[in-house]
Write a structure and sequence with these properties.
Number of strands: 2
Strand content: under 5%
Number of helices: 3
Order of helices and strands: HHEEH
Number of domains: 2
Shape: elongated
CATH topology of the largest domain: Helix Hairpins
Distance between the termini: 29 Å
Helix content: 40-55%
Amino acid sequence: MAKTSSIEKNNRRKKLAKQYSAKRAKLKALTKDQSIPLEERFAAQLRLAELPRNSSPGRVRNRCEISGRARGYYRKLRLSRIALRELGNFGQVPGMVKSSW
């Protein structure tokens, strides 16, 4: 189980990323538009830099829904490999059977 503070910090980052997503997308579009004068694009870049760092979606870490583990994460299932194996052993993942050889 991951530290509760790490999980909560990541949840705050998710919330901020969602909150600022529209504003961030608008400013990014302005900075990439070649038809706008250079000064305006630079001003948009400065406004983008003034946004909170944790509002960037790149700072959000993929974590397991059950344990909060950050490594060995399956995106499709939103679980870590360990949690997936435990659920598979109990027969709670459809189509997954325990492997042994």
